[in-house]
Design goal:
This protein has 390 residues and is of the alpha+beta class. Helix content is 74%, strand content 10%.
Length: 390
């Protein structure tokens, strides 16, 4: 068989393959659109159902109060039968019984609505999963079409770029998810537990108010302390997520505050030196410098067991230099820096990712028993330049 015939057959195979892939791409797109439509429909239904649930919860609360008052009325009438007539007692009993029945029915209705809401949430999640998978598959099919119908070298370059972007995107998503998990744990172990305790204390106070007023007063004082502690925890979580003082006070005072809190929590001494020859205007740079310092100090606090820490920040017209040194126990750099496992040095991985995204350089030196040194260099650019000039 001649080469021309082989090429012709190969071209026919490629053309048929492209046709089949394009047809499949259209079908995937239709599936995706249908899933999006289902998502929108489910979201609308869920919003409507949430409003109904909120309304019925309000009705249940009102019925609970009414039912509670009716029982009090019934007890009062029953005990003072000389004051109230038999008709009064009968009316009080009927009112209490009627409210109890209504409350039972309304609670059942509330459970049914909550069950429907959970089913809708699961349906919405499944639809979103379908959309996500369809979009991923469409992207992959598009790459395959480009490979088969375009310039091979161009496709190779495109694939490499897509792979790099995808790899970076996956790492960023993992970092975001790990951060969400950390915040979720902090809220669950802190304010959520405290709020549960507040509910229990409030119920106890409600019961004690008519029985032992002095003890109820004591419990209320304890309740106030619990709420204050919860407020401190919530403020700390909010500050960790976005330090408002960064906008209000500026970068240096915010880092100084971070250093003071670190010294209080660890009893380690920190030498913070700043050489500021230029003013940083880009918010992404300010936040990145703060986050790098915060992550480094958190890592030292959790793992290093350091007694002395040195932080030097040099802000120049072209580059920003950050150097953080501790005299802690040290570690294996290769294992820690390239891991996204929170138990295995996620803080250092996060620092590296932030520096990479801003086209900077990072050098981490450490050995077991000899402390750690982190050197970071970040170019001073306009904010749009960090996004590739797009």
């Amino acid at each position: 068989m001649s080469i021309n015939v082989e090429v012709k057959i190969l071209n026919e195979v490629i053309e048929k393959t492209i046709t089949a892939i394009e047809s499949g791409k259209k079908e995937i797109f239709e599936i995706s659109e249908k899933a999006r439509s289902e998502c929108k429909e489910a979201e609308n239904e869920l919003d409507e159902l949430k409003n109904k649930v909120a309304e019925i919860i309000k009705q249940v609360d009102q019925l609970e109060n009414s039912e509670k008052n009716s029982r009090k009325r019934l007890i009062l009438v029953s005990r003072n039968f000389k004051t109230f007539t038999e008709e009064d007692i009968k009316d009080a009993y009927e009112v209490a019984n009627d409210l109890q029945v209504k409350l039972t029915l309304k609670r059942h209705e509330e459970k049914e609505f909550i069950k429907q809401r959970k089913n809708l949430e699961m349906r919405l999640k499944r639809a979103k999963d379908v959309v996500e998978k369809a979009e991923s598959l469409t992207s992959k099919v598009g790459v395959a079409l480009g490979y088969l119908s375009g310039n091979l070298q161009g496709v190779f370059e495109q694939l490499e770029d897509i792979q790099q972007r995808q790899f970076m995107g996956i790492k960023i998503i993992k970092a975001q998810e790990l951060e969400r998990q950390r915040v979720s744990r902090e809220i669950h172990d802190g304010p959520a537990q405290t709020m549960a305790n507040v509910v229990l204390k409030a119920e106890l106070c409600d019961r004690l108010i008519d029985i032992d007023k002095q003890r109820a007063k004591t419990e209320l004082q304890l309740l106030k302390e619990i709420v204050r502690d919860s407020l401190k925890d919530i403020r700390k979580i909010i500050y960790d997520l976005m330090p408002m003082s960064l906008d209000d006070l500026g970068l240096i005072p915010t880092i100084q505050r971070l250093v003071l809190n670190f010294e209080k929590e660890t009893e380690a001494s920190v030498d913070f030196v700043v050489n500021e020859n230029n003013e940083i205007k880009e918010s992404i740079l300010l936040l990145t410098i703060f986050r790098i310092t915060q992550e480094a100090l958190n890592n030292i606090k959790k793992h290093a067991k350091a007694r002395r820490v040195s932080i030097r920040l040099d802000i120049g017209s072209e580059n920003i230099y950050i150097r953080i040194i501790d005299d802690g126990i040290g570690f294996n750099v290769e294992e820690k820096v390239n891991s996204v496992d929170d138990k295995n040095g996620f803080g250092l991985y996060s620092i590296k990712e932030r520096v990479d995204l801003l086209k900077g350089k990072i050098n981490i030196e450490s050995q077991k028993g000899e402390g750690t040194q982190i050197k970071v260099t970040i170019p001073v650019c306009k904010e749009e330049e960090y996004n590739g000039g797009e």
